[in-house]
Amino acid sequence: MRAFAAPPAQGLVASTTPASAQWILHEVLPGELLQQIADRYAVSSQSLERWNKLDGTHPVYRAGQKLRVYTQLGTHTRDKLHYEVRAGDSWARIATRFGVSQRDLQHRWNSCGGALRVGQPLIVWVERETHEREQAARAEELPIVSLPEGAAIAQSVGSPGHGYLQNGMQLPKNDALYTIRNPEHSYASSHAIEALQTGIANFRRETGFARQILIADMSVEEGGRFGPHHSHRSGRDVDIALPQKADPPKNAQPESPARVDWLATWRLIKSFVDTDQVRYVFLSRSCQLALYRAAKDDGASHADLLRIIQYPGHGKAAIVRHAHGHTSHMHVRFRCGPEETACEEI
Ligand SMILES: [Zn+2]
After folding, report:
1. Can you give the pLDDT at residue 170?
2. Within this chain, do residues 113 and 209 fall inside the same structural domain, yes or no?
3. Interval between CA 199 and ligand 1 midpoint (Å)
4. How far is the CA of 319 from the centre of ligand 1 (A)?
5. How far does residue 137's CA lie from ligand 1's centre (Å)?
6. Do 289 and 253 sit in the same domain of this protein?
7. 281 - beta bridge partners?
8. Could you report the per-residue pLDDT of 219-275, keeping only the tens digit for each?
9. Number of domains present in the structure of the chain
10. Pairing of strands 329-334, 278-282
11. Per-residue pLDDT for 294 more than 70?
12. How far is the CA of 240 from the centre of ligand 1 (A)?
């Protein structure tokens, strides 16, 4: 479990977590649901009702009201931001930029449904910590580290299940983007390494996500058999731990889906897909509902949902598809690069 604990990124303010629970006051945001508040502070909604004498079937609370919460997590301050719509904005883009859900932005904080016009004033309730991380990610350079000058291109030969890796390239250290679990298990084709970094850099830049992204198994230096994996042989497969919530529920098991930040997971997958260099993302069927919900919440189009996520059908065409055992990590398979003549896409 400690493997997932991220050191705060450079220049970021680490959120302080009091050692023991204490009473805090939470100011209710417009349209905020009791369950959202409960999740935020890792308490039950029943406790919230009890502490604040709310009637369970018709909880009476309104925006601006202060609710008493007994929590270990400290207050999460949200700042009210006045935002002016710019050219090229959409509800989804603005929501992504500030790390909020599109539903909150569009329907709870700004009671306007349809098209945006340039200059239109909007209210965004931005979580202070998230906003700081987002700004840090923007200020931070997110370099893509390529092959050293003159080095032979690392090529994928054959298929992921039977092939091997020629001139295997080790994933370069790149703290701004990711953490490498085991350098000896982190070889791939040059093409896959570039696409991997591009996807993560775009994701961090667009979302401001500043927590850890842990790269687990890729391939070994020369590719070939790499137990216990069936594939991972030709330098195009990358296992990535699912991004974790900032404040996962205290009682959730180390690899529980309750710890996963599904919105970030969706956006990371979307960034990979947008590179056009991803063949598949393997994820257990049991996780796909949560992913699908996050994507819908994020304003993904029907066409994108159909094209990217296998759930709710059993379509053979979607990019995210079921493979056993992928519950705490996703397995990204990159495409063959243009120079890889012996690479078999499959
Ligand atoms: Zn894998």
Report:
1. 95
2. no
3. 18
4. 15
5. 28
6. yes
7. 320, 332
8. 999 999 999 999 999 999 999 999 988 767 777 777 788 889 999 999 999 999 999
9. 3
10. antiparallel
11. yes
12. 8
Rounded Cα distance between 45 and 33, Å, is: 10
Q: Give, rounded to a whole angstrom, the gap between the first and last alpha carbons of the chain.
A: 34
Nearby residues for ligand 1 (ion, Cβ within 5 Å): 239, 331
With respect to residue 212, please indicate whether it lies within any of the assigned structural domains: yes
**9 three-state secondary structure:** coil
CA atoms within 13 A on the CB side of 253: 5
Domain assignment of residue 291, yes or no: yes
Is residue 91 within 8 A of residue 41, CB to CB? The reply is no
- Residue 305 sits in the same domain as residue 197: yes
- CA of residue 173 to ligand 1 center, whole Å: 20
Omega before residue 8 within 30° of 0, cis: no
Give residue 162's identity as a one-letter amino acid code.
Answer: H
Output the CA 160–ligand 1 centroid distance in Å.
11
For residue 144, tell me if it sits in a domain.
no
What's residue 257's pLDDT?
A: 87
Q: What is the CATH number of the domain that holds 103?
A: 3.10.350.10
Whole-number Å distance between alpha carbons of 305 and 295 = 7
Residue 269: domain span: 156-334
Tell me the CA–centroid distance for residue 18 and ligand 1, in Å.
37
CA 64-67-72 angle, 5° bins: 125
Looking at the fold, whether 63 and 82 belong to one and the same domain comes out as no
Same-domain status, 25 and 107: no
Measured in Å, residue 306 CA sits from the centre of ligand 1 at: 23
* Percent of the chain clearing pLDDT 90 (strictly above): 43
The tokens of 158 are what? 């054959």
- CATH number of the domain at 220, please: 3.30.1380.10
Tell how far the Cα of 318 is from the centroid of ligand 1, in angstroms. 18
pTM confidence score: 0.63
The residue ranges of DSSP E strands in 109-207, in sequence order, are 121-127, 155-157, 164-166, 169-170, 179-180, 187-188
Q: For residue 334, report the distance from its CA to the centre of ligand 1, in Å.
A: 12
